[in-house]
Write a structure and sequence with these properties.
Layout (H helix, E strand, L loop, with lengths): L10 E3 L7 E3 L5 E4 L11 H7 L6 E8 L6 E7 L2 E5 L6 E4 L2 H8 L11 H20 L1 H6 L3 H31 E3 L5 H32 L11 E11 L4 E2 L6 E2 L1 E12 L2 E11 L4 E5 L2 E5 L5 E3 L4 E4 L8 H9 L5 E2 L2 E2 L2 E8 L4 E10 L9 H4 E4 L7 E3 L3 H34 E3 L4
Length: 433
């Protein structure tokens, strides 16, 4: 991703607030992906209301979004100018703009401190350290330790021997077998079944690793949270005003939604996902020892579809669903009439018990003597898994274990069945004369 002003590559820098920032090393500005501004501006709700609702003067520009190459809109807000993309919902903030917005829209329980000069200095330092590494690669390869050469040669020879054995086995099979009939469509379906079965086995292995991780992390009291990967259980509490779920109109602290449209292609009919997303507002989780803020951006959700609504046989949707679709910017009609839609949503209600596994991160500038309620929050980290579920840990592990065994057994059955059918139909062994 490149700077909008100088076309230099943006430098990705980690921050104490959670999301990484893409910063121009020349100091022209920085890029925020959709929803990331919530982590850097205290009263982000007021900023969101001011943006695009009369708080500023929007204008179309020739500047294109660095992600989706669509022309962006500039908007003057609180004495500064932002550039927004209406497609990916990212924004470009010139130098000093993020600091100004954070100071203008205050009101968070914990003061968010922004040090933009330090960010740009880090971007310059990172740029200087990247180039010497690139030029020094040949030298480092020439002076590699002897043991690295040994293992490289060892694994290289192992791969060569394994390849020779495989080729010899294939040649032997070709001499002792023959094809009963030429390849047809069924052969490709069977090969696809074998590949799909192997994919199920791989997915089962990933579920197994996730289950082991959940079982290995002890549940921590919120008062005793430490930096790093943590697991908590508690009741959900909203931050400020409650959210309203888009299709059910339920007061909640968090929601996710999916909108699917029924499309036809010849004689086939399928559901195509046309929109999906989650709420961006953080919320608290409280246990008997205290509470901690959870920033749900980037979390893996394990929430059941509590509500599913689809277009009736008359082609109509409930008014609350139509209102929710309109609020999300999704059209429920086309030039041919009403669309056939299926709307699904999952919510976390106030005081509902939830489970969170994620990285405990520290607000910038907070001392260790401050309580966890103000010093730490749980959010996304590239180095740790981030899971939010409304199930207990026991129920979550039971569900994942069931999924793991279903994938293992299903994958083995599919691979064995497709392989047996393929060999039985297309391959026969030549009897020695």
């Amino acid at each position: 991703m490149k700077c909008l002003d100088c076309d230099n590559a943006l430098i990705k820098l980690p921050t104490f607030q959670g999301p990484d920032l893409d910063v121009c090393p020349s100091g022209h500005g920085l890029w925020l992906d959709a929803g990331e501004v919530n982590c850097f501006v205290g009263d982000y709700l007021s900023l969101k209301q001011a943006t695009g609702s009369g708080g500023g003067v929007a204008a179309r520009t020739q500047t294109k979004c660095p992600l989706c190459t669509i022309q962006m809109n500039t908007e003057a807000i609180a004495g500064t100018t932002l550039a927004w993309c209406n497609v990916c919902h990212g924004c470009w903030l010139p130098y000093g703009c993020l600091t100004h917005l954070n100071e203008t829209y205050k009101g968070a329980a914990v003061r968010i401190q922004i040090d933009e000069p330090e960010l740009y200095a880090r971007a310059v330092a990172r740029t200087k350290t990247l180039h010497p590494v690139i030029h020094a690669q040949p030298t480092s390869q020439r002076t590699a330790p002897a043991n690295m050469w040994f293992w490289s040669v060892f694994f290289g020879l192992a791969l060569v021997i394994a390849g020779l054995i495989f080729v010899a086995g294939v040649k032997k099979s070709l001499h002792t077998t023959r094809w009963n009939q030429p390849p047809d469509a069924l052969l490709f379906y069977l090969i696809g079944g074998v590949v799909g079965g192997l994919g199920l086995l791989w997915y089962g292995w990933t579920v197994q690793q996730r289950t082991r991780l959940i079982e290995s992390i002890p549940t921590s009291p919120i008062r005793s949270l430490a930096l790093g990967l943590v697991e908590i259980n508690g009741q959900a509490e909203g931050e400020g005003e409650s959210l309203i779920s888009p299709f059910g109109g339920l007061p909640c602290v968090f929601y996710s939604y999916t909108v699917e449209e029924r499309v036809s292609s010849g004689n086939n009919t399928r559901w195509k996902t046309i929109a999906s997303g989650t709420s961006e507002q953080p919320f608290y989780v409280r246990d008997v020892t205290g509470r901690v803020l959870v920033v749900p951006l980037g979390a893996q959700l394990m929430l059941p579809d509590e509500r599913s609504i689809r277009t009736s046989w008359l082609g109509e949707l409930p008014p609350v669903v139509v209102t929710g679709l309109r609020r999300l910017g999704i059209a429920s009609t086309s030039w041919m009439g009403n669309k056939v839609l299926r709307c699904r949503e999952s919510v976390i209600l106030p005081n509902e018990s939830i489970y969170v596994l994620g990285a405990a991160l520290e607000h910038h500038g907070m001392g260790h003597h401050i309580a966890n309620e103000s010093r730490l929050y749980i959010g996304y980290s590239r180095d740790h898994t981030f899971i939010i579920s409304d199930r207990s840990e026991k129920d979550l592990v039971a569900k994942l274990t069931w999924q793991m065994w279903a994938c293992f057994l299903g994958g083995l059955i599919v691979v064995a069945a497709c392989t047996a059918l393929l060999l039985n139909r297309y391959v026969s062994v030549i009897e020695p004369s």
